[in-house]
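Our consortium's second objective concerns turning raw sequence data into structural hypotheses that experimental partners can test. To show how far this objective has progressed, the report includes one record in full. It was chosen at random from the queue rather than selected for favorable results. The single chain below, 292 residues long, was entered without modification.
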Amino acid sequence: MSDIAVMTDSNCGLMPEEGRRYGICILPMPVLIDGNTYYEGVDITSEMFYEKQKAGALITSSQPSPGDVMGMWDRLLKEHDEVVYIPMSSGLSQSCASSMSFAREEKYKDRVFVVDNHRISVTLTHAVLDALNLAKQGKSGAKIKEILEQEAMDSTIYIAVDTLEYLKRGGRVTAAGAAIGTALNIKPVLTIQGDKLDAFAKVRGMKSAFRTMCKALHKDIETRFSHLYEKGLLQLGIANTWMDTEAIERWKQALTLEFPGMELTHIPLTLSIGCHTGPGALGIGTVRKHVL
């Protein structure tokens, strides 16, 4: 059995220090703020990020440099036989495609396995934990990649955006549309199904947005994922950008009541999503889990 290191990036919602507790190597994602580069969980916290965002800073997401990616591979390969790297979905960033290209270099061939798992946030975290469990079962890096890519579509995410301000700043909503939407208390609901972030619905108020997301999630569980649900192989997830503790606890309680008996994981939404949604966004979803 080969010794396998499991690696991901901070788009999973876990920071490098948290990753060490799980035995996961986490590459911090860069974010550009007023022309300066910060690394998620290293030299900028969520609180600092959203304070700068609300103050009007110019913020854009970025991807890790080739040196950062391959530098971590090199360090891991000094202590491990293989590396399984699960970055954010290829449909949401070029980082996955770039890493696959790097992994074809001779020094990494058959030693580094880049997984296009089409995941982000809590669903990506579960894929990474699955990789750890599969490695413990004695699966090779190549086999882990094969399994995770086969199961890539066994997840669904819905995200309610509390403010239109940051979609307007990013050019995804016009200034006029944002003004009208704000006046009407419109909350866009987005969805991530595999490799893309798409519009799903527009509703009035976060409570209506939550009901809309729950209805969609019920439908997914009853149709696409019924075979997994019946076998006890589905896990609930909830994630959020910056909001107070009491608010997220209320949403967690509401989700637990809506889906009784399902295990719930809470992980913050990554800054890569927060760049576009701003604070107060709420995501819910479900994902396949592996049972040892």
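The partners drew two points from this record. The CA atoms of residues 25 and 160 lie 30 Å apart. The mean pLDDT is 91. Both points have been shared with the crystallography group to help prioritize constructs.
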